[in-house]
Design brief:
Length: 220
């Protein structure tokens, strides 16, 4: 008789799966938000927006996940991957493609070092009482780590909808060692180059199967 292992509750809503060669923990989103304008909070958007397109401000997005259960200590972490659902690359309907072309966008994620409120964060403020050091948060070891996670993901023109994978092993190791888990910021290295903006599904997306998550592989 063959037994099929499914995701089952581990701690709170963290779920786990026994691979036969280690445990995989699935960490769900706790909060996320797009940073675009200084005066507006976009927590209601069904998308996480990344990069600028002509006539509009730049965009970066924040996302935070559950903490890894203590049953997987730092020494047992073998790897961690973040999955965000790519929906499409956006341009204003009245823009000709010559003005807003579909160019490759090269995406990286940085560990965030300061707390933020998803219902209050804007491009200039992390909450109603505190500002980012620079607009869209500083990637200078102040608001976020200057060094990105090691993998760059390219959204190639006309790629299909679906999950995109980022290696965030270094980030998860740090949080497991006790560093504050303030999540990650997603940005494009060519964010100011004229082209379409990238749209991922946010936690406000009605289809929960498109919500971001993290998988962490732990040895026994």
């Amino acid at each position: 008789m063959m037994t099929v292992a499914l995701f089952a509750p581990a701690v709170e809503c963290v779920t786990s799966y026994n691979t036969g060669a280690g445990m995989v923990y699935k960490l769900h989103v706790t909060k996320d938000v797009t940073l675009e304008r200084a005066s507006s909070n976009y927590n209601w958007l069904q998308y996480l927006l990344v990069s600028k397109h002509p006539d509009y401000p730049n965009k970066r997005s924040l996302v935070q996940f559950e903490n890894l259960p203590g049953s997987c200590p730092t020494s047992k972490i073998k790897g961690a991957k973040m999955y965000v659902y790519y929906v499409y690359a956006h341009k204003a309907s009245w823009h000709p493609i010559s003005k807003t072309p579909f160019i490759p966008r090269h995406l990286q994620v940085h560990v965030v070092k300061k707390s933020w409120n998803e219902a209050q964060a804007t491009s200039s403020k992390r909450d109603n009482s505190h500002s980012w050091s620079t607009q869209w948060l500083g990637l200078d070891n102040n608001d976020a780590e200057g060094e990105p996670q090691p993998q760059t993901v390219t959204i190639f023109p006309y790629r299909p909808r679906g999950f995109v994978e980022f290696d965030i092993t270094h980030a998860v190791h740090g949080w497991s060692r006790g560093l504050p888990n303030y999540g990650l910021v997603i940005r494009a290295t060519n964010e100011l180059e004229a082209g379409r903006g990238i749209r991922f599904a946010s936690n406000a997306m009605g289809d929960s199967s498109q919500h971001a998550y993290v998988l962490v592989l732990c040895s026994y």
